[in-house]
Each structure stands twice: as C-alpha cells, then as structure tokens.
Amino acid sequence: MWNPNHIFQDILMKQYGVAVHGAGWVAAEHVRAFDADPRSQVITISSRRESSAARVAKMTNHSEAVIETDLSRVLDREDVQILVVCTPHDLHPANTIAAARAGKHVLIEKPAALDTSSLRRMREEVAKAGVKSVVSFVLRWNPLFDVIKAQQANGALGHVYMTEVDYVHGVGPWYGQYEWCRTLAQGRSSFLNAGCHAVDALRYFTESDVVEVSAYTVAGSDRFEYPGTAVMICKFENGSIGKALSNLDDRAPYKFRISLYGDRGTMLDNRIHSQTVPGQTDYAEIPTILPDSGDVSHHPFRGEASHLLDCIDTNEESHVSLGNSVNTHEVCIAADISAAEGRPVSLPLP
Questions:
Q1: CA–CA distance, 266 with 262 (Å, rounded to integer)
Q2: How far is CA 272 from each of CA 3, 61, 286, 342, rounded to the nearest angstrom?
Q3: pLDDT tens for residues 59-68?
Q4: Which listed residue, of 9, 205, 238, 261, carries a Cα 20 to 30 Å from 324's Cα?
Q5: What does residue 18 show for φ and ψ, rounded to 5 degrees?
Q6: pLDDT tens per residue, range 305-339
C-alpha cells in the first residue's frame, strides 16, 4: 500500500548533492552509481561542452540535472557537497584543488595527477580543507578482490612474499578516450594512463608501500606517443616484492591477472592452493565475478560511490584516499624514470 512517509524518508536520506564534472565515457557510470545510493542525488552534470553534459544527462535519465560548462559555478552551489572529477587526466589537479578550496568532497578518476608536484599540491589542499577523497581505483570493489582479501584474512596464504598483477588492455581508436589519452600531454605513460590499476592492486594485496622500482618499456605498436607496454619490479617496505605489467598495445581480449604467493598458499586469480587444506592436490576454483572487462559498465562504481558516502558519514579516511594513493602514483612515475634512465629508483621521490 502507498505510504506518503516513504517519500518523506527518501527526501531526508538524500543528504548529499553530487556534481559530475567531465562528460566522457565513464561519467554516466558515476551518475548511475550515486543514483543507486539513497543518500545522494545528482544535482549537476558539467563539461567544457554543453552538448556533452546534456548527452550524459539524457543517457542517465536526468532531465532535471543542471547542465553547466563553468566549474566555478558548480562549486558555488550550496546544494552540491561532492564533486566527481572525470575530466582528462591533466585537468584533475586543478579540478580537485578548486573543489577542496570550495569545501567539497572529491571522487577523482585515476590517475589523480601526472606529476609529483601536482599530486602533492592536491594532497595538501585536500588535507587543509578537511574534505574526504577517493581516487577511483574502482577494482577494489570487484568481487574477486573481496575473495582474495578474505583468503588473506583467514590465513590461507600466510605471509605474502610476492605479488604479480598484469593489466592487459589494448587501447586504440575503438576506445572512447583514445584521442587524448594516447598523447604525452594527457596520457603521459602506460602506467599512468591505465596500468596504475595494477600498481594499486599490488599495494592493496601486499598491504605495504613501495620503496624501490626498476622498469623497462617497449613500443608494441605505433598507437601512442609513449611506449604502450611497461613492466616493473618493485620492493615493498615490508620486505615483499612485486611485479606489474601494463600492456596497452595488446590486440587480444582484456585481462587483469592477479597472482599472490604466500608461505602457506598461492592464489592465481580465483584459484587457490593452500597448506591449510589437508589433502588438497590441485588448485580449487572459487566461483566469483572476475575483473575481466575493460568496459566501464562492468566496473563496480556503486560500491565505490557508497564507500565515499560512508567515509563522509563516519568522518573516516578512505583506504584509497588521495593521501593513500600518492605512493601508487609515485610508483608509476618512478617506473617511467627507471625505464628512461636505466636505473632503480627509490621512493618517496624527491
């Protein structure tokens, strides 16, 4: 039976107004993610081009959303508490700093920045403003990541001494943001442009920061202004080691491969072999949803959006806040330096 109190309760729960800035491929998924949580309401969709913002509003059935082309007008709105930054990579620092100075919480598409000075300015401004931040390493909410973390927590792997993560995603003219992410100015490198997902996963599963990086790169195609394939090995503060691959040159289906090697067990994606299971003779497969698509509609943005709202509600910092993610970005930058100069690079960067 219809109950008018339900409408009143829904209105009360919508505490946070959300502005989505940038109207590319991923913007619609952020809109849908915040739509799915009753605590938030999308107020504005903005872009440098009005037609782009209007297109996202139409795609997501937001005819009531305010369409803007000026970020300063968005940030002046008292009914907006959260800014989602999904503009091209090189614009993230200015967008984030402006949001923090306006007192808005921020969800920042990865990479948060392409250089250390911008990254550190962003971190300082966000900390000074006291707002919450999440960098969109959205695969942390993929069910396979939950499965792996559960196996770590129950001791099935023991001490994880080595982790490997491969990001294999062929990017070309068929990819939504290819025209600008292929450039040095806006894509910068294989790891910064996209392979940072692999680096973040390394840190997430190893539960430690990286202190040294060595890397090599190769141009596996002519589709980028930088080498499209990069591989790096790293040493963690806790003594573990890791390897990450970022391959944007590939022409095969997308793959995100995860391998964890512990002193009590091994996980290869969703397959596990553990000394804690007496008599186990081969890997056991755990049915789950794998991170096996580069299509953003497959990514778990709803979990990420709700996580940011949880952090705001509880006044707690995210496990993937801007401050936490500085090490991930510095690893990517250090890998580029290592490959260019042919030497190991220590972290933190100067």
A1: 6
A2: 49, 43, 8, 36
A3: 999 999 999 9
A4: 261
A5: -115, 135
A6: 999 999 999 999 999 999 999 999 999 999 999 99
With left for phi above 0 and alpha for psi between -120 and 50, is residue 61 left, alpha or beta? left
**Token digits of residue 90:** 């090189």
Burial letters for 165-182: b for 16+ Cβ neighbours within 10 Å, e otherwise? Answer: bbbbbbbeeebebbeebb
**Averaged in consecutive runs of 10 residues, what is the pLDDT profile of the chain (350 residues)?**
44 80 95 97 97 97 97 98 98 98 98 98 98 98 98 98 98 92 97 98 98 98 98 98 98 97 98 97 97 84 98 98 98 98 98
The domains of the chain, with CATH numbers, are: 4-137 (3.40.50.720), 139-296+322-346 (3.30.360.10)
Q: Is the dihedral of CA 166, 171, 176, 178 positive or negative?
A: positive
Cα separation of 230 and 198, whole Å? 11
Name the pairing type of β-strands 82-85 and 105-108. parallel
pTM, rounded to two decimals: 0.94
Token output for 264: 């009590």
In one-letter notation, the amino acid at residue 260 is: L
Q: Is 120 helix (H, G, I), strand (E, B) or coil?
A: helix
Query: What is the DSSP annotation of 208-241?
Result: S-EEEEEEEEE-SSSSSSS-SEEEEEEEETTS-E
| Pair 264, 274: CB distance under 8 Å | yes
